[in-house]
Amino acid sequence: xxxxxxILLFGLSIAAVIDGANILYIAGVxxxxxxxxxxxxxxxxxxxxHNVTALSLQVENNPPENVHxxxxxxxYEAIFNDPxxxxxxxxxxxxxxxxxxxxxxxxxxxxxxRFSLKSKGFAELMNYxxxxxxxxxxxxxxxGPCISAAALHKFSRPPLVLVTAYNGITTSTPFAGSFAYxxxxxxxxxxxxxxxxxxxRVMNFxxxxxxxxxxxxxxxxxxxxxxxxxxxxxxxVADFNKLARVVLPNVNxxxxxxxxxxxNVIPVGGLQVVDSKPLPKDLQTVMNSAKNGVILFSLGSNVxxxxxxxxxxxxxxxxxxxxxxxxxxxxFENDLLAHPNxxxxxxxxxxxxxxxxxxxxxxxxxxxxxxxxxxxxxYCTKVGVAMRLxxxxxxxxxxxxxxHEMMTNASYTQNMQRLSKVxxxxxxxxxxxxxxxxxxxxxxxxVTYLQSHAVEIGWxxxxxxxxxxFLFVAVAITSHVIVGVTYRIACKKHNGGKKLKNKQA
Length: 505
Ligand SMILES: *[C@@H]1O[C@H](CO)[C@@H](O)[C@H](O)[C@H]1NC(C)=O
Ligand SMILES: *[C@@H]1O[C@H](CO)[C@@H](O)[C@H](O)[C@H]1NC(C)=O
Prior knowledge:
Blueprint: H1 2-19, E1 22-27, H2 32-47, E2 51-56, E3 67-71, H3 75-80, H4 90-94, H5 98-117, H6 120-126, E4 136-140, H7 147-154, E5 160-164, H8 173-176, H9 198-230, E6 244-249, H10 281-289, E7 294-298, H11 310-321, E8 327-330, E9 342-347, H12 351-360, E10 364-366, H13 373-382, E11 386-388, H14 396-408, H15 411-424, H16 430-443, H17 454-462, H18 465-504
Parallel strand pairs: 1-2, 1-4, 2-3, 4-5, 5-6, 7-8, 7-9, 9-10, 10-11
Helix pairs in contact: 2-16, 5-9, 11-14, 12-15
This protein binds 2-acetamido-2-deoxy-beta-D-glucopyranose (2 copies).
């Protein structure tokens, strides 16, 4: 009996090894929060028996034996320690127009590419034996087709799955063919709501067009140039985008402005929300003893609180002091949101924090700093689960009044609990869904049915801009001709009349 169980177990473990695929996971976005999001997916795949090689800017000690981190070292330092770079100062980025922010973002992507290519980690992967096979490549796509293109080229183009911790669906345009609906959805860097006036929509159209042109004419050629320095014979790097079978973005329709998705874009919003770890003892004690509730203050993992400046910090402390009964915690620790005594979350409105607050049903006061943080808080305000304040000038009185309103008016908590219920009400956990779709690609490595033809035909045709240009030109020519002919006829009559008169005279 024992023996047969042993044989069975042995058989199972062999089956797991055989079924386990060899997966390359590229996590090259220089942002801690993006790694926080990728982490559960890396481990989730490993838990299913896959052999995951994570080529990543951040690595972890003591991973399971089928997770192999290879670090692309020095990229964070190169990008954020450069005092001249706007990317090292999120507050100055917050003052930019969407044009500036979109450009700065593309520049950030190019920098991630440039410094990752220089890393020893990248060289290590490129030195893998020529016959080494990966069954699948997963790329955190936000920084574009750079390291992923090099890897796909080296390992004979295995199928590609794209993932992102971001919720801007239009960022999947180059590989899923997604649409930027300028009349409906504000660009992900645009501080606007769905109720855009005509002027907003004109600007939104320009932002979306600018973003597209930046990618096509600046980012991709630049990345191609950088990769080509290492691998001269590689095909144009942006063409590797077309290998993407499915895209898994951090999107959930219930918790953001709604917009249509392409069929191979599978929303896995909130996959980072895993069962929360038990709190450290001291925090647990503080949380348990706060009978009148706790308010959490956090600006996330990218913006350090010390960059706030004394004036802002004093204003925040001043506001906190006027609620002596309430326990305030100033900390980056989203696990606290799960505690029943947590009442309110004062946040920079980063996507992961916002999603976690919604998951746990905690209403928000948002201090958006830059980029998508505006749209996160704008959505939350719209559905009545949050109030928004300005980080540029923090006014203690205004903050006091806002905290008071949020703590006394039950509607925010009620709305948030309803939103939370809808966010959680899914057939499977977002992480399980992500893993299922990745395995779907492993099971169907050659299937391209879900991919949109939009990727092939490109932006101009897909949006029918060529047709619009043709119609515009046709209308312009026709009106020109009509006006010209009418004018001539009118002139002839007029002149003819004159001539007649002249003769008579
Ligand atoms: C698992 O990944 C590691 C690191 O890339 C590699 O050295 C090893 O050969 C892989 N194992 C299998 C069974 O493919
Ligand atoms: C609570 O807040 C909601 C949303 O701002 C508002 O409509 C409602 O009137 C407020 N209720 C009270 C009692 O102030």
